[in-house]
Write a structure and sequence with these properties.
CATH class of the largest domain: Alpha Beta
Helix content: 40-55%
Strand order of the largest sheet: 3-1-4-6-7
Number of strands: 7
Structural class: alpha/beta
Largest sheet: 5 strands, parallel
Oligomer: single chain
CATH superfamily of the largest domain: SGNH hydrolase
CATH architecture of the largest domain: 3-Layer(aba) Sandwich
Amino acid sequence: MASLLEKTHCELDGKTEKPEKRTGSKLRLSYALLAFAVIGLTDLAARALYHPDPYQSPNRSWAWWAVQDLRAQKSADIVIFGSSLMLAALNDGDSTYLNRPFDAVTHHRALYLERLLKERLNKPVSTASLAIGGQMASDVYALTTTLFTRNPVPSNIVWGIAPRDFLDSSFTNPDSSETVRYMNKVSESTDVLSTNRRILWDRIQNIADGGFYLYGKRGDIIATTLPYAKSAIKQVRPDIDPETVHTPSPLLSYAMKNLPEDNGVDQWRVTPYSPSKVFADNTAEYMMRYHPFKPKVLETQLAYFEKFLSFADKHGISVTLVNMPLTEDNLKLLPPGAYQAYLTGVKGLATKHGAQFLDFNDQKTFPRLEFADTVHLNGIGGKHFFELVSQQMRSRPQ
């Protein structure tokens, strides 16, 4: 009898445990559904109410600074593209022309070229520089197609090109550049280069960005809060201008390699030409960039180069391409056949699309004394460069 009662008691206990388990499962499911509903409603509300300026950025990259100045200018007759080779010619040339130092971060006009063209054409000509260190053909395509479908179109583009801009062996993913990432944000397309995100992680990131609106706008949220953070800093330290805060020099090398680009006002100063400036040897850097020669990189960049030319032709933009001067020392670093492959490719496409091609890569025209290192012109060379551009531009600004 006792055993029967124990058995009955156990059975009853077993029966009472099952509804409790079911209740716990239902509660967990209810919480999950509630959380999902809250997330969904938050996402819908954010899509309806939160529309930040697509041009804002949580970090002040070179592309961000250049685009802010272009938009502030409203329009420009001539827009200038190029990598650090064009930047050196423009910045050092202007600093030498003005005979004073200035901030490279905020300088985005070719003042000496403006003066030369004004004298030749007897009318003012405006310029805007979108030249950025390390700029590739894919970056130029991203900038051009994004900005000039949303902002006034220039009548002329002057683009200084060089082999590195088309065959940099360290540049294997066009989507990875700071410029393209920023243009993706501005265009709100996540794929301004139309590469269809072949890399698995990029595809996952793209799905996450589109699936949850606030996650996709995380950079905007940071950028939106920055003014409040800067205001708080001013309250505590009124002697500090937050806009001038930048990475200390001892940490700069690490920051450039491991953190998003962020350039403060006066972080990079340009000074006029001085004979005391020592010629720098940067052959090690270019050995790394030129080797090994990767035909696929050249092929990809030439494809974006042609897309750029097609866009310019469609929008009535006259293009002047300038093959930038290099020293003989730098040319010798190129793998056999690489320079000819680059030159044949760009000249052929320029002819096909009616763009002007100026070849300034001539050691007699630009002797070694006009270089700061094996590829970058100094202030004297920069002035000389824009004198030739102003004289030889086939299409004059309208």
